[in-house]
Amino acid sequence: MSRDSSLPIFEIQADLESALEAENARIVIEAPTGSGKSTQVPAMLLDAGFEGDIYVLQPRRLAARMLARRVASERGGRCGDEVGYQVRFENVVSRETRIRYVTEGILLRRLLEDPSLDGVGAVIFDEFHERHFFGDVTLARCLGVQKTARPDLKLIAMSATLETGALLEYLGEKTAHLQSKGRTYPVNVEYVPPKERHNDAVWDHVVRAMAGFYKSHGVNGHALVFLPGRHEIRKTVSALKNAKWAKQFEIHELFGEASPKEQDAAVGKSNRPKIVVATNVAETSITIDGVTLVVDSGLERRASFDSRRGISTLTIEKISRASADQRAGRAGRTEAGTCLRLWSERDHESRAEATPAEIQRMDLSEAVLVLKAGGIDDVRGFNWFEAPNPQGLELAISWLQTLGALDRGDESLTPVGRAMSKVPLTPRFARVLLAAAEYGCLDYFSVIAAAAQGRPLFPKQKRRGSDLTLSDFREPEDGSDFQALVRAWQAAASSNFNRDACDRMGLMANAARETGRMADQFSNTVGRLSNRNTQGREPDAAEIAQVLLTGFSDRVAIRNSAGTLACTVVGGRRGQLEKDSVVADSKTGGRLFIAGEMIEVEGRDLTVKLNLATKLEEAWLAALFPDDFVEKTGAVYNETNRRVEAREERRFRDLVLESRPRGEPPPDEAAELL
Ligand code: ADP
Ligand code: MG
């Protein structure tokens, strides 16, 4: 496949080449989605005889993979040769690779090992308008590198929207600003809010709206449907397959975990009209040609971090007006089109103008650790493009201190912190794997860490009555749900991840294989940092708890009573223990435990769920965190009885483990309280 030399981006090719000649070159490229920025700009650099490798930062893994495949094929090669990609846990690059599409912290970590970015000629920040956290931080670091060690390093930020004022100011007045208008056609926006009498689920609403549109306008071109996630996409696809009017369409799904074949089919050429049902990856990252109808649910799934409560949240949110406009624009790439917004105009007016930058809504601890390891001692005074909220920053610093990565006094990086920064995982899991390596059971915990990152080993819902679930892998003496999880994975591994064998057990073969691959990577990386060379030992429940505790002390929880699933978690938080957990077992369960997963989910209600629990003994808390373990006797005011009592209390931080009355209070203390 050769490149399309009629793409609008070629208008700026000559200007780009001359801008690249400057020392300290900083370039902002602004052109609408579909102009050819992501696929053509890196290739233009290469074709201009540019030396050094080209890194292209992508906010989404799916985009990194698809762009690398596309550009490799346009240049007549295989992905992984001249053009490759690197996302967390997946490297498709070789010694010949010149263009690397990368995500997340990949470049930031490379900066740790190689602060002057030897061999890197240019860094391109794609989709910069989306303001992803690692993009912001990496840009700040690269500016520093350019200023000090590498005036020949070229920095390019690309954006589809016009909000480049603040960026230009940040980059300085010498920045070259290249614009291409691109080509766009008018899009007619219609609001089609749900009708109460239909009581539709979002997928039914999509199908109903499309049927109505095609009935009055006929079919001309492809349709693109935006939904928040994989679940809604699957539901919509099956509803479409049942609709008579949709028989003439090819139907495709596009989301992060769809197979590469399906992803390529979704964006590829097609003679029949097609309907592509996608997440917001199709909003700006991936362009599908020939779309004339966009159907927008107006929703997206947004991962955030609630720094007040210290928990991750994954909720479905209303998209901003700016996102809605981007999505609508997808219908006007090749000719005039229509966008159906499945909400009311009034709802639209009430929406946020733009999505808040990620830096305002994520856990900063990994970035703070990486910055510290990169020699940035003063993270508060760092050259942030947009400073994070101070509360989030303080929380990250104090969490890293709890983990032992930063000194309690001067916040400097400790040896443990330095080792942790070399592990491409959240600080929590990095700490756990380092502890596991000391116990000689790194391989076991690598599986646990990998299972926590990847896709679930079990489907969301049982497909058949005979399917096994996590608790079927439990054994009587278990004290941790992770034991059953590892056994389930081992069962899949011993079948060599055979699809039929896994399916018979109700396990997801591909997810299990991926987990294994990731676990190997973790074992390799962390194994190198440890001085024990055998890591294959299987820990017992007590060891599991003690190793986990190094990284999960903020997830120590206690059931409010022996008979309930309602729990209190350190930090004054509340949650609901998973009912099938070993800890909830009426005979062998317990009250005190560690929640391996704590997440706010949106179902019928918003609840904080505590999953993958591990039983805990107080003595282990006291051994590992002696300073946080408090035993005291004293007077407290009992609200119920309205009197002062002497109580004996044991606490872990603010979590009351036990509190019982103990005779009469000393009179002076009682008087003080009253
Ligand atoms: P931009 O980054 O400016 O949004 P891209 O470089 O992603 O633009 O895309 C330019 C053109 O290349 C698009 O019009 C699209 O049709 C085509 N294209 C990009 N990736 C693929 C792909 N994986 N398969 C088919 N066409 C693609
Ligand atoms: Mg792009």
Looking at the structure, what is the overall shape?
globular
Which small-molecule species are bound to the chains here? Answer: adenosine-5'-diphosphate, magnesium ion
Q: How many strands, what sense, and barrel or not for the largest sheet?
A: 8 strands, mixed
CATH architecture of the largest domain: Up-down Bundle
Oligomer designation: single chain
Q: Show unreliable segments.
A: none
At the first level of CATH, the class of the largest domain is: Mainly Alpha
- Judged by helices, strands and strand pairing, the structural class is alpha/beta
Measured as a percent range, the helix fraction is: 25-40%
Span between termini:
83 Å
Would you give the CATH topology of the largest domain?
Four Helix Bundle (Hemerythrin (Met), subunit A)
Number of strands: 24
Radius of gyration: 27 Å
Calculate the mean pLDDT score and round it. 89
* Number of individual domains: 4
Strand order of the largest sheet: 4-3-5-2-6-7-1-8
Specify the number of helices. Answer: 22
Give the strand content.
15-25%
Characterise this structure.
- The chain is α/β, with parallel strands linked by helices and 674 residues long.
- It has four domains: 8-179, P-loop containing nucleotide triphosphate hydrolases (Rossmann fold, 3-Layer(aba) Sandwich), CATH 3.40.50.300; 187-357, Rossmann fold (3-Layer(aba) Sandwich), CATH 3.40.50.300; 365-540, Four Helix Bundle (Hemerythrin (Met), subunit A) (Up-down Bundle), CATH 1.20.120.1080; 627-673, no CATH class.
- Helices cover 35% and strands 22% of the residues.
- The protein has 22 helices and 24 strands.
- An eight-stranded mixed beta sheet has the order 4-3-5-2-6-7-1-8, with helices on both faces.
- A hairpin with a 6-residue loop joins strand 17 and strand 18 (566-569).
- The radius of gyration is 27 Å and the shape is globular.
- It starts with 12 loop residues before the first helix and ends with a helix.
- The mean pLDDT is 89.
- Adenosine-5'-diphosphate binds next to helix 2 and helix 3.
